[in-house]
Amino acid sequence: MSDNTVTVRRAVAADEAALLEIELTAWDATSGFPSLTAGDRTTFFAERYGPDAFLVAELAGRLVGYIRLQDKYPFPEGAGVLSINGLAVAPEARGQGIGSVLMDAVTAEAKRRGARKITLHVHGVNTVARRLYERHGYVVEGTHPREFLIDGQYVDAVDLALFL
Ligand SMILES: CC(C)(COP(=O)(O)OP(=O)(O)OC[C@H]1O[C@@H](n2cnc3c(N)ncnc32)[C@H](O)[C@@H]1OP(=O)(O)O)[C@@H](O)C(=O)NCCC(=O)NCCS
User: Fold this and answer.
1) What are the φ/ψ torsions at residue 109 (nearest 5 degrees)?
2) What is the C-alpha to C-alpha distance for residues 142 and 108, in angstroms, rounded to an integer?
3) Does residue 1 fall inside a structural domain?
4) Ligand 1 mean position to 79 CA, how many Å?
5) pLDDT tens-digit profile of 8-61?
6) Under a CB-based contact definition with an 8 Å cutoff, are residues 32 and 71 in contact?
7) What is the rounded CA–CA span in Å between residue 157 and residue 164?
8) N or C terminus of the chain: which is more exposed, having fewer CB within 10 Å?
């Protein structure tokens, strides 16, 4: 019998290799920036976003997804506003609700921190992610038309927010 249990935990330094593997396969032109996720990337964590910034999902004990949640502003007037700066599930693990579990976990974490709002950006063409965010209560705050030129196509950037 297969074990379909999904668990979420905070990332640790030892997750580096598994997270890098997801990072190199999860993104495409509809979801990310091909120049940033090119195959020659060799590290996942960075100084601005170490393991503390990530929650990871495991399916039957295997790391299959991550979400990055950070303070949006480094000054007190913006306290309480968090930002999701990345959500990805390994291609072979999609469509099983893992993205949804990660979104729930981030909402719970934000509430625990006393946050009042979570924001994120999504490409206008990323319909799968947009549906997921909408299902979790995110609303459109604004659109930046033709913000990026990706593989020869202009792509809108959409700002979404969840008010807690
Ligand atoms: C967006 C993403 C995180 C969703 O992860 P997920 O674990 O597949 O999410 P869920 O299973 O909770 O929901 C995915 C939706 O796709 C559907 N789906 C079904 N089978 C699927 C499959 N094989 N592959 C992808 N989606 C599938 C799900 O039913 C659900 O549909 P719905 O929104 O109409 O209900 C994932 O597609 C991903 O990593 N995409 C690339 C990175 C990205 O776009 N990140 C967000 C950037 S802002």
Assistant:
1) -65, -40
2) 25
3) no
4) 30
5) 999 999 999 999 999 999 999 999 998 887 767 889 999 889 999 999 999 999
6) no
7) 23
8) N
